[in-house]
Amino acid sequence: MKIAILSRNSKLYSTRRLVEAAEKRGHEVVVLDHQKCVLVIEKNNPKMYYLGNEITGLDAVIPRVGASVTFYGTAVVRQFEQMQVFSCLESQALVRSRDKLRCLQLLAKEGIGMPKTAFASIPKNIDNVLEQVGGVPVVIKLLEGTQGIGVVLAETHKSAKSVIESFMSLKANILVQEFIKEAGGADIRAFVVDGVIVGAMKRQGLPGEFRSNLHRGGTAELIELTEEERITAIKSAKKLGLAIAGVDMLRSARGPLVMEVNASPGLEGIEKATGVDIAGKIIEYVERNEFNFGV
């Protein structure tokens, strides 16, 4: 097979591991910066160019689209789909998962647990918004934030109002969520590939830090999921149409609560914590599905 990995940086751990895993299985691999792809849209003749050369002969693509370039990255994935190239991340699923509000709405409809969340464009009564999620402390999130950026823990009513008013003055869309104290600054990432949990880790934030993101100095360790956590992670990925997903959950007194479902989850933390060849699992999924694609 000839596989393209859509990545803006070929030196990233996740990109390198996918290249290694594919080449180990005898596949030809190219890394394409999706920001440098040119889409040509024509009746019954979709084409793609990269650095002036037409892209042909691809069997499959593995998108690694960052949140900051979701719009263009989605357009590129959609163009490959129209060119009858198998993508392990469907364009619509990418759009769906990147919209945090829509994601939570879909998961809630599916009966999946999550922290109680409020969303308001221009709340005239901030006190009511805070009351609806159970009062302070609350977690305030930018809809467009990633890797813990744009996430604030407000521990008092005064500080919560101040943060919300500040975001409102910037015309930023925010979510206000209840704070799950019993999680203790830790969360769980379950890595799903083709409806199966292939690895899971517990991420623990630094002392005094409620965010557990590894990019912010958190640590990770192998963890055994409960049956409820496994079901929740698999259902979440399926509901959003993601064959490959990192499902982030909190352990609470009322069971697992989903915080986010990542469409392009990083491989470094999960592979090092679990010792599992996650990149290989992804390539195996591509092999199985490319074989049946279009049949």
Protein model, in words:
This protein has about 300 residues and is of the alpha+beta class. The protein has three domains: about 1-90, Rossmann fold; about 115-180, ATP-grasp fold, A domain (Dna Ligase, domain 1), CATH 3.30.1490.20; about 185-280, D-amino Acid Aminotransferase, Chain A, domain 1 (2-Layer Sandwich). It has nine helices and 16 strands. The protein has a five-stranded antiparallel β-sheet, sandwiched between helices. Strands 2-1-6-7 form a four-stranded parallel β-sheet, sandwiched between helices. The two termini are about 15 Å apart.
Shape: globular
| Strand count | 16
What is the correct CATH architecture of the largest domain?
2-Layer Sandwich
Measured distance between first and last alpha carbons: 16 Å
Averaging pLDDT over every residue, what do you get? 91
Discrete helix count: 9
Structural class determined from secondary elements: alpha+beta
Could you give the order of the helices and strands?
EHEEEEEHEHHEHEEHEEEEHEEHH
- Side by side, the strands of the main sheet go 14-13-12-15-16
Q: Return the CATH topology of the largest domain.
A: D-amino Acid Aminotransferase, Chain A, domain 1
Strand content: 25-35%
Percent range for helical residues?
Answer: 25-40%
Q: CATH homologous superfamily of the largest domain, by name?
A: ATP-grasp fold, B domain
Kindly give the count of domains: 3
CATH C-level class of the largest domain is Alpha Beta
